[in-house]
Specification:
By secondary structure, the chain is an alpha+beta fold. The protein is 48% helix and 12% strand. The protein is elongated, with a radius of gyration of 34 Å.
Length: 335
């Protein structure tokens, strides 16, 4: 599974809703899983904010899951995206697509907190990406999903924007992506490799017989890339396939450590985001008293006792009045 957030978020609500479900709400391969499309569209249209909604997709290599698994994934993602908010504080539309032969769970969240009408910011990449990425890593591992980060499955080259800060981790991430591209036949020689690096934004500053160096996007010393794939006479062959398989085995061997790290990052990220959401969007104080069952029972007993006293006064007083009337009648009769 991969998680992707779309850059769009302005315009009318019909844009994302019609794309996901079709203008006639009958798009082939689309299924409404959660949410009210008309309500989502109205919330987006009535929003006074520049970015009116947040949208994205959970994309799976698997063709489908049972309903219980899909519900668990959607609920878990909402908690990861919007910790600290209750279900009545936000609205989320979920639409699944299966028209590409694999499952996609698409989501749209209007950027408005429902109880106050204030602007809601579900996702800010610089702050929120580590938390969401950690959720992805843990979910892929727990549910044993197809892992796009495994070098044998990797399809995209790591970009400067997504590069890990430690240089050895950065070099490994770049190498794993290039190995996958070579394994798919996209790289045939070193020239193809250099073009691929520069195509995603890296600056190749040095080439030797056995290595390539790129400038560090964060500054400082260059990142030196070594290995079979970086050699001057590199050509795709059996040796490269073996290197890809070795990288994949190394990746799987460190899975437990990677899951532990992801959980730590996730917990920390959730605590920060929860505190931020609860500070910005506190629930309003209730305007009525919450009455417990015990209090209801006590009030009922008090009302019964009070009613009993009223009856006693009413009927007791009536009996006394009747006694006085009977006494007066008896005295007149004697006279």
């Amino acid at each position: 599974m991969i998680v992707k957030f779309h850059a769009r978020g302005a315009g009318r609500g019909s844009g994302p809703v019609d794309y996901l479900l079709g203008k006639d709400r009958a798009r082939d391969g689309a299924t409404l899983d959660r949410g009210d499309p008309d309500a989502i569209q109205d919330l987006i249209d009535s929003s006074p904010y520049a970015k009116k909604y947040t949208s994205g997709v959970l994309s799976f290599e698997e063709s489908d899951f049972d309903r219980t698994t899909k519900d668990k994934i959607m609920s878990s993602f909402e908690k990861a995206l919007l910790p600290g908010l209750d279900a009545d504080q936000y609205s989320c539309l979920w639409v699944e697509h299966r028209d590409k032969g694999r499952l996609e769970l698409n989501f749209v969240v209007p950027n408005v907190e429902l109880l106050s009408g204030k602007r809601l910011q579900p996702y800010f990449e610089k702050a929120d990406k580590p938390r969401i990425n950690a959720w992805k890593i843990a979910t892929n591992a727990i549910l044993k999903l197809h892992d796009p980060d495994d070098p044998i499955n990797k399809r995209e080259l790591t970009t400067p924007r997504n590069l890990p800060k430690p240089k050895h981790e950065a070099a490994r991430a770049i190498t794993d992506g290039l190995l996958s591209m070579a394994g798919n036949g996209e790289l045939i020689n070193r020239q193809d490799l250099v073009i691929a690096l520069e195509g995603v934004g890296f600056s190749v500053v040095r080439q030797t017989k056995k290595s390539i160096s790129i400038s560090d996007p964060e500054g400082g010393r260059n990142i030196r890339l070594k290995g079979l794939i970086y050699e001057q006479d590199f050509k795709f062959g059996a040796g490269l396939r073996e290197e890809i398989e070795t990288a994949s085995a190394r990746y799987r061997a460190t899975s437990q450590e990677r899951i532990r790290e992801a959980r730590d990052v996730y917990r920390t990220g959730v605590e920060i985001k929860r505190a931020e959401n609860q500070r910005r969007h506190p629930r309003p104080e209730p305007t009525h008293e919450c009455i417990s069952f015990e209090k209801l029972a006590l009030d009922s007993a008090e009302r019964s006792a009070c009613f009993g006293r009223l009856l006693e006064r009413e009927f007791g007083g009536r009996e006394k009045r009747l006694s006085r009337i009977n006494w007066k009648s008896a005295n007149r009769a004697r006279c």
